[in-house]
TrEMBL record:
It comes from the Bacteria. Pfam families: Ribonuc_L-PSP (PF01042). GO terms for cellular component: cytosol. Belongs to the RutC family. One of its GO terms (molecular function) is deaminase activity. CDD domains: YjgF_YER057c_UK114_family (cd00448). This is RidA family protein. Gene3D superfamilies: RutC-like. It comes from Amycolatopsis alkalitolerans. Transmembrane segments: none annotated.
Length: 137
């Protein structure tokens, strides 16, 4: 499998992500939007606590698919806020986490009006690419 991440000349500098991700893979993994619910279905209380719960949930989902953060080829981060400081705080928290390498790829960060669960402030959409199927073929 080949994953190429690059920033073509003429495009603006980024805070760690790449404008273009090109993939040659045998298997693609598409995660459902990861929400900040714990295993019991309770939502984490604050913005950064929700980001932390999403990191844990996403890591578990990737692992279940046989993927790692380094296999991620696209992320979309949704934050219920129109305050750039909130968006930056979530970006910083995610990129500093164990999921950090996932955000070096094609990534989009959006401020939105609302998300699916009452009190939900953050959601993460992830796509990964793998060289082989789970049986190593």
């Amino acid at each position: 499998m080949t994953i190429e991440r690059r920033n073509p000349p003429g495009l603006h500098a980024t805070p760690g992500y790449h404008h273009v991700t090109t993939v040659e893979a045998r298997r693609m993994v598409f995660l459902a939007g990861q929400s900040p619910l714990d295993p019991g279905g309770s939502i984490a209380p604050g913005l950064l606590d929700q980001a932390d719960q999403i990191v844990n949930n996403t890591f578990l989902a990737l692992t279940a698919a046989g993927a790692t953060p380094e296999d991620v080829v696209r992320t979309v981060i949704y934050v219920v806020s129109n305050d750039r400081a909130d968006l930056s705080a979530v970006w910083d928290r995610l990129t500093a986490s164990k999921l950090g390498p996932a955000f070096s790829t094609a990534s989009t960060l959006l401020g939105v009006a609302c998300l699916g669960f009452p009190g939900q402030l953050v959601e993460l959409d992830v796509t990964a690419a793998l060289a082989d199927d789970p049986d190593g073929r």
